[in-house]
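Morning F.,

Quick status update on the modeling queue. The single chain you submitted on Monday has been processed. Sequence for confirmation:
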Amino acid sequence: MNEHNPYHAPAAQIADSMPQERLTIEPAGRWRRFFNLLIDYACFSLLAMLVLVPYATWLVVQGGEAALDVLEEPNFLRDYGVGIGAMLLYYIPLEGFFGFTVGKLITGTRVVNEEGGKPRWGQIVGRTFARFIPFEAFSVLFSNGKDRRGWHDSLPKTYVVRKR
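Structure tokens below.
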């Protein structure tokens, strides 16, 4: 009975519609990582200013001289919150969607998981929150071995590798 059964499950294999690019895990060196840090710091500081200046302008227009006085007073929690917000808005979307930040794009590096593929969103969020650990930025400079992994790499099990 070789009749065609329209209700029979298909027997064809389904291939991945988008093959995932796997990068060789060739860790980026200390200097590339350092330049990533400098460039990314400048970029998320610029992002913080682009968000903060219109907000401060709106506050001054609404509140007048009293609002200006409040903004001129030092406020550790407000300033720290703006910095954290800027880092979250900068790192999570860029590394999550593209696998790189502006600094990594310029230096020819990418973020990958341990297999060399695109990291999961949980890994990206973990990387970003690990950056808030005190003295974490120095963990890359003083890391041992050829991997040059900082805490924000080793904790979520990611690597920053050379793309070019």
